[in-house]
Amino acid sequence: MKSNAARALDRLDIEYELCEYDVDPSDLTAETVAAKIGLPARQVFKTLVMRGDRHGVVLAVVLGDAEADPKAIARSGRSQRGRGPLAGGRAAHRPRTGGVTALGLRRPYPVLLDESALGFDRISVSAGVRGTQVLLAPADYVRAVGARVAAIARPKS
What we know:
The protein is of the alpha/beta class. It contains four helices and nine strands, in the order αβαβββαβββαββ.
């Protein structure tokens, strides 16, 4: 079954691969997903729903083994003051943790992609449902979601 993310990529004629894995609801970390699909955590990107003062909701897409840096997001021009991720993206995107994606949304939000993504031939992002990742070229992801590329990640604290 194709997700909205896959259908959006099809409409844009973007080459991608869907990668399915077994979901453990008690462990939805990007590091676990990376291990299950056979990629390093640095190549699996997670989408965090952030709220800024000036532009409202922003989707921050960062490395699986890092976290979003609210100050860097604020400096990127997408928000006046980054406020950190919303719990599970509840207020702006999905009612649960996991499966958050910028691909194929009904209402587009500004997307910031950490610049580290450009160092890979392919990156993995959620397909919008738990248990499915999309593998695609970073440039294609930028084009598909209209992402702005910036240094927005920091090591986990």
